[in-house]
Amino acid sequence: MSVETDQNVIQVLENLGAVSKHGWKARFDRKPEVQCKPFGFPRLSQIKSFIPMAFRYTFRFYLRKRLIEKRLPFLDPSQHVPWKPIYGVPMGGIGCGAIGRGFRGEFVRSSLIPGMYSYDPQPADQFILTIRKGGETLFHQVLSPQTSVPAFANGLRSWNWGFSAQHAHYIGLYPRSWTVYEVAHFNLILVCHQVSPVLPHDYKASCLPTCVFVWTVFNFGSEALEVTISFSWHGPSPAPRSAPNSNNQVSNHKQPNGLSSVELTQPLVKEPVADYLCRSASFRSTKNPAVSGCLLDRIIGNELPCCFGIATKASDEVRVSRCPGYTLSRRPTNPFEPPTERKPPKNAHDSPVSDTGEPDLTSLCSYKQAPSAHTVWEELKSPMGLRDLDNIGYHIPNRPTLRRRTPKLAVMVSATCIVPPARSANASAGDLSEAGQSQLEFAVVWHSPLVWFRGNKVIYRRRYARWFPEPGMLGAERLLESALSNWKDWVERIEQWQNPVLHNSSFPDWYKSALFNELYYLTDGGTVWLDPVAFQGITSQQSKLIPIDFVRAFKGNASLDPLQLTGRHLDDDSDQQNHHGGADFKWQSWKYRSRVAQEMGLFAYLEGHEYRMYNTLDVHYNSSWALIKLWPKLQLAVLLDCADLAIEEDQTQLYFIHQGRYGIRSTESAVPHDFGDPEGEPWRDANAYVMYPTKDWKDLNPKFVLQVWRDWKLTQDNDYLLYMLPIVNRIIQVSLQSWDSNGDGMIENSGFPDQTYDTWNAQGISAYTGGLWLACLYSACEMLEYALSANSPLKAFLIASNSEDEVSWPQVQKELQILLESAKTVYDRALWTGTYYIYQNTPVGNHEAIMADQLSGHGFLRVGGAPPGAILPSEHVIMALKTIQSTNWESIQNGSLGVINGGLPGAKRDLSNVQAEEFWVGVNYSLAATMILEGMSQEGFSLAEACYNTIYNRFGLQYQTPEAYMIDGRFRCPGYMRPLAIWSIQQALETKQLCNGTTSTNSLQETEDDEMLTDVLSKSSNISTDGNHTDVV
């Protein structure tokens, strides 16, 4: 085999189609340019403002959480996720729990228990390569460059570690990756293709907890070789937690929806206490005899049952063998004789797994009888290879002594094939078509259908269990069968989705990588996609409640809809006769609301790996572009849930750290900051963020309205709009009453960090929240204008009713339009300098700062399809963008880092607060989208590239994109939702093309941009209709 350079190998594989030409690429010995570290302490000049809050946080909140309640706080500044530049594309679908992989092949960061991450790699989770010829083992090695293993797995030290890092390569393009191993001494190249079922507009396959590995072996030699790939698996081991201290009993309270009142005095019982900590077995599929593997049913973290399964597919060319259990200890056993104390099966054909999927523990052997890791390694190395054991399983009993120090039991499957020699004696790596080839398929699943949060009130079933409801081992077996039967279809559909972007030569390679790889967070963002099953002894089947109302049932201190803005107060279909000829839009829209809720269930993802709050709305505002583009029904469902939480009033008292005062959890018509904390009870107990009372935040309400408008614009879902209009109007009216002190239509900030920049004080009219408010008013006006238009199917509903203030809807629309025009004038007069909009009009601090995000509201509108000048003069927008470009971007390290949040006139950095001197990835991507729509495509792409290159290549933060980074390599909250905003760039490109060159005052640049974008957008805009939903790809 002739291989001159690493690049030659990858290029040849790319040309053959064996690996992707696009994606994030790294050799195993890759090291980042910058040694990074988590953000620790602010500058001395900034720390003064933190001291009072830090004191209250520590002594009034943090210590109580950790020591008394025995729960994790929603954020913990003392416990940062360490910098590890190791990550690659994670495994699995969306909302099913994730298992990560490192780009060197290791299995790393996992989040199987909701809200809890485990970062320690499991050394037993490996692929092993064995090469034989003529009955002799020539090569036997773990395909990992690591050279040491932890003490608890000392039996693995006898394995042959240390695969050459210089001869292994990685390509990541979510939801797939390719790992290439060169074994030049034996004229072999191995390619491992990792595939997860993440498929846009597919709400079934996309939530499956499974991943497939397809190995292709290329032989350039003149002799056939016997190649064995072995897959060893133990699975993630999250650290056990102490049981939280809380009172789970709920007071008796009758809801207005008619759910019968019951006495709730019994503690939540999720399931009987398991009599095992771990049990294992082998299986051979009855539906597809070619599929066989091993199952490992464990209690992970001593709290959550999870059945792992690994399998491969046999054929006439592939021989399969299985080891249904081995320990990670060094205890030696005879590699060729089974232990004499093993219990035989009841008959020669019995398997430990019954038809119900639950093994009979009396038929399983003790874990003490399982072979050691050393024994299995030596057996695998032998000329005959690993024996196939079809009727043996092991178990670890549930005893206190074993719970404290659980023995480690792992399983293994092997697939062996003969790789034919090259067809030509002169074959080389330069001509893969001449190489002999063989293919081996493996799959891994993690089946944990029932989950719960630390609040211990509600039991949930993961969404995928709608189609795979079987418990334990039987469910894992069915998932494995499905994965190995359907992966080719997954690959075909992924390529159909991605190829219009990947094959377009006008798009730079970095963009193709960034666009798809940033979607990793939908899998690895602590995402949950659930159906509630039971609440305090009541099952969801006993109730007609939609999922979010079932979760919030029996809240004696809360009212779900005090103003009856929705139709949830209507008892049942018998009430329809009281609605005037169907003109009551609340009845109509409630039927729609119920249908979406039952179809989609409950979906949530964490703000960040360190910031454990679900569906943080001020951040989801940026990241939601990914959902509305790829899974629009999910985005609609999230916003509908948010609307329902916004109209709820919850009188529960919370301690707010900012001023050390108590207040209520949520106020009617105040959009929630978040949907709750996994350490509590999400959806039921919203607003886990207690640094400030977020009912006073000025950006949450406008961001909600903007998302409603954008979702309606892109889906044209009229039923969605009908449900949202009364809520949107109520939220705007309450905002005006609370924050517009002089009635000029413009809201004012209150002198504290009352928006997403929660260390950056704002007072009076500010560029950021003021611009969002203008966009909010514009959105509301456009929605009402459409709803009241002559051809609108909604007009009859609105004309026959009034707003909650008994104002006619045409009058509401007229008043909002007047307010918008007034607010636009006030905003421009208060903030425009001639070159940019100052941070705020109140002369306090660096009030003249140049904020990178000053055009956030305008940019969101433009990307969503609003015309130029909708809220701001076009010439002002272009001038502000150029000012940001020169001050916040190009003046800092020649623009190599991207845009910094805060600048000052004279091309200086604003160092007045921590967040002003940070670079926010999501803000960079959003600003790039705005530039593209304003005739600055080259600048927009260059800006986004600088940000992407910093994260993925210079800082080693790939597949853990942080919220923020700084010039010196410090970063904050690795793994964050806001960078999903890169999908606003894709939407901007499509919006720009649809506008056909009329979207900017820069006509020359616009013409050039349109020519560049025409081809890709004609291919990538794939619109399909499903009922009332229009899915925009």
From TrEMBL:
GO terms for molecular function: beta-glucosidase activity. The lineage of its organism: Eukaryota, Metazoa, Spiralia, Lophotrochozoa, Platyhelminthes. Transmembrane segments: none annotated. Residues 238-258, 325-361 are annotated as: Disordered. Residues 249-258 have a biased composition (Polar residues). Pfam families: DUF608 (PF04685), Glyco_hydr_116N (PF12215). Coiled coil: none annotated. Residues 601-985 form the Glycosyl-hydrolase family 116 catalytic region domain. Gene3D superfamilies: 1.50.10.10. Residues 88-490 form the Glycosyl-hydrolase family 116 N-terminal domain. GO terms for biological process: carbohydrate metabolic process. Residues 339-349 have a biased composition (Basic and acidic residues). This is Non-lysosomal glucosylceramidase.
